[in-house]
């Protein structure tokens, strides 16, 4: 689905912000990017989206370099889910979601009944069909995040890139979003998500990328990579990985910061 090969990125006045990054994403993968603030996670997402052009190396979607793919066609392969934020424009939730059809609608055309039907189906799939006529600016943070995911689904892209999808959400809404991501992965979507919560890697992901100072310092499964020593070094604070019984059938790993 996606191949990142030895990419570097930087500005002439600032030097390299990303250095020699390589990884791949297959269909159904859920990849978690972990790293402290300033590690380069958002810059990497900008490169994957084609917003920022890499200085060296290549990024390929289905074997094609993203620089050679027209923007409208690229949008059919990948969709971006930003952190939920309010908007000053009085858009209905349904209209926000139907914007995901933009790559498939002609420049002089308007969304068709079929486009709206796809948007309504995405809202129903995420359990927020009742919000269709509500103003996006008036719904809760968790509902806005679900709306943005619905917009990405309406885009009909196989790869979803999510920037801290649970940021600023209460605990219940965080779990709700995580369940949606888990369900999408099981449906065959490939997902790349940044997170400041290592527990997300244990709950959702089959691959973890550890980033620090613009470099990938470790790649592997959560069991291999999310360890006491790696996290303690990454966040410069003592961290302990413990196992708990989920009360059903298996042991779960949990990341716990140590204050003492």
TrEMBL record:
Database matches in InterPro entries: AAA+_ATPase (IPR003593), ABC_transporter-like_ATP-bd (IPR003439), Metal_Ion_Import_ABC (IPR050153), P-loop_NTPase (IPR027417)
Keywords: ATP-binding, Nucleotide-binding, Transport
One of the Pfam families matching this protein, by short name: ABC_tran
Annotated ABC transporter domain residues: 2-238
CDD domains: ABC_Iron-Siderophores_B12_Hemin (cd03214)
Top-level taxon of the source organism: Bacteria
UniProt-recorded Gene Ontology molecular function terms: ATP binding; ATP hydrolysis activity
PANTHER family the record matches: IRON COMPOUNDS ABC TRANSPORTER, ATP-BINDING PROTEIN, METAL TRANSPORT SYSTEM ATP-BINDING PROTEIN TM_0124-RELATED
Name the UniProt record assigns to this protein: Iron ABC transporter, ATP-binding protein
Source organism (scientific name): Sporomusa ovata
